[in-house]
């Protein structure tokens, strides 16, 4: 049985990760740490786990095999880097850290540790994204020119996100730093190396952080990516579009995929035959790999995590300084 420590309940997904761990049959939450001792103690009691008040004490425990990081985004650097230096397997909520300089230090520590690292990029496992990747790999769409991804909800306009979610000192940003991670890593997955980034953010409902955001990215191969997100969109589908010289695919769900291509005669049959199943969750991939002594996939790894922060940081600089950011 894999012994896991959960580090922080600040993130809204932290409870879900703990529950998934305890129902996995291969791992259990053995310990809890939180910078907020009252919150941590209450959560530890709920999980029937040991509360350990000091982070260094948790990480020094030989009986803790892995950690799940769910604390404040701005504190990720300290917590994740310490966990890597302590030789723990690491699963973290996105983003890895707000600054690329911090991510590079974490990366060195993770590589030196030789342990597994997984960041939560669940949309990569969606059937429609896996299908789009197959289309690209098989050349069905020709040369890719544009990738667009939108992930948004009404957490602000619907008034259901917690107030602490809008504290920049903890969250490091707003909708783009949180929900916007998903479209950002998706366009990066298809685009590759970025060379120019622009960001345009605003807060029409008056939050202290961005509520509505769009980033555009030019990639080295000529593809342009568009990442859209927000906290003020009611019933917005998680839409994905990819356009190429020989065809395009647009989708708002796995049951609503539109494909055109000069290379395929029977489009409906092709979709039906090639639509893959959904992948296990990133946390499930992580726990199984750690329990079985296997390596985790690169698309959920440390380099992919660093690539996301590079886009996020550049987009925020672009919006703040009203300019296009060039990446060398």
Summary tags:
328 residues, alpha/beta, 8-stranded mixed sheet, 6-stranded parallel sheet
Which spans have pLDDT < 50 for at least 5 consecutive residues? Answer: none
Order of helices and strands: EHEHEHEHEHEHEHHEEEEEEHHHE
Strand order of the largest sheet: 13-12-11-7-10-9-8-14
Number of helical segments with 4 or more residues: 11
The helicity comes to: 25-40%
Largest sheet: 8 strands, mixed
Estimated share of beta-strand residues: 15-25%
Distance between the termini: 45 Å
What is the global morphology? Answer: globular
Structural features, described:
This protein is α/β, with parallel strands linked by helices and 328 residues long. The protein is built from 11 helices and 14 strands. The chain has helices spanning 14-22, 37-47, 55-60, 76-85, 100-113, 127-137, 168-171, 181-191, 267-274, 282-292, 302-321, and strands at residues 2-7, 27-33, 50-51, 66-69, 89-92, 117-119, 144-152, 194-202, 212-219, 224-230, 240-244, 247-253, 256-261, 325-326. The strands form 2 sheets. Strands 13-12-11-7-10-9-8-14 form an 8-stranded mixed beta sheet. Helix 4 packs parallel to helix 5 (100-113), helix 5 (100-113) runs antiparallel to helix 11 and helix 8 crosses helix 11 (302-321). It is globular. The mean pLDDT is 97.
């Amino acid at each position: 049985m894999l012994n896991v420590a959960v580090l922080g309940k600040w993130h809204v997904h932290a409870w879900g990760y703990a529950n998934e761990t305890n129902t996995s049959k291969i791992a259990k939450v053995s310990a809890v740490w939180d910078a907020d001792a009252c919150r941590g103690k209450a959560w530890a009691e709920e999980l029937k786990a040991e509360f350990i008040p000091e982070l260094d004490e948790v990480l020094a425990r030989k009986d803790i095999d892995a950690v799940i990081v769910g604390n404040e985004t701005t504190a990720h650097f300290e917590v994740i880097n310490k966990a890597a230096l302590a030789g723990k397997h690491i699963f973290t909520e996105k983003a890895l850290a707000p600054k690329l300089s911090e991510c590079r230090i974490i990366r060195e520590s993770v590589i030196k540790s030789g342990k597994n690292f997984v960041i939560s990029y669940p949309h990569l496992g969606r059937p429609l994204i896996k299908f789009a990747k197959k289309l690209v790999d098989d050349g069905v769409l020709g040369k890719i020119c544009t990738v667009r991804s939108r992930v948004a909800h009404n957490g602000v306009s619907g008034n259901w996100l917690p107030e602490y979610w809008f504290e920049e000192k903890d969250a490091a940003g707003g909708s783009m730093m949180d929900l916007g991670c998903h479209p950002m890593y998706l366009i990066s997955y298809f685009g590759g190396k970025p060379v120019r980034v622009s960001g345009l953010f605003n807060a029409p409902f008056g939050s202290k952080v961005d509520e509505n955001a769009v980033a555009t990215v030019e990639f080295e191969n000529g593809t342009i990516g568009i990442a859209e997100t927000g906290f003020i969109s009611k019933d917005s589908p998680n839409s994905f579009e990819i356009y190429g010289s020989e065809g395009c695919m647009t989708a708002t769900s796995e049951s609503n995929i539109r494909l055109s291509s000069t290379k395929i005669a029977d489009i409906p049959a092709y979709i039906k035959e090639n639509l893959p199943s959904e992948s296990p969750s990133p946390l499930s991939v992580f726990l199984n790999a750690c329990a079985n002594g296997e390596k985790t996939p690169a698309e959920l790894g440390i380099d992919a995590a660093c690539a996301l922060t590079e886009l996020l940081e550049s987009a925020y600089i672009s919006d703040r300084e009203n300019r296009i950011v060039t990446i060398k």
